[in-house]
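Let's practice the habit of predicting before peeking. Look at the sequence and jot down your guess about where helices and strands might fall. Then scroll down.
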Amino acid sequence: MNMDLRTVARTAVIAGVAIAFQALNLRQPITGPGINAILYVASIYIGPVSGALVGFLTPWIALITGIMGFAPAVPVIMAGNASLALVSGFLHRYNRYLAMGLAAFAKFIVMTLGIRYLMAHGTQVPAPAYTSLTITQLITALAGAVVASIVLGGFERFGGNRHGSGGS
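Done guessing? Here is the structure:
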């Protein structure tokens, strides 16, 4: 991905949107799909690296602001977000909906393996945290894909340029 000024600016704007959305301090059933939708839009509209960068930022913001209180999960969430961003960002050219579905599944697998790794190495993971960091991630990533599809459809309808489409 070419990190020209336009790409950096778009990445900064969408990171700001993600931070502002998290600052609303909404419940997980709203925040999860919202952040995942932002990651999909960043990855598909700007580029996979932009999505991954935003995905690295959001768990830290959640930890710092108290949205999430389980610090050992931060690297797991970062890895899950990166997998979602990279899979959707690289595969959307073939089929956007399949790419987002595969990205949601990749995030679920990466995070489930990450949490199990933490547990295997002695980290006490409370049952609610385990659930919210595994199967709930699949559900919120799929819900985020629906929201992102609507947003991306709007961008296309009103003439927005995606990365790799000639004007970005």
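How did you do? The CA atoms of residues 54 and 165 lie 21 Å apart.
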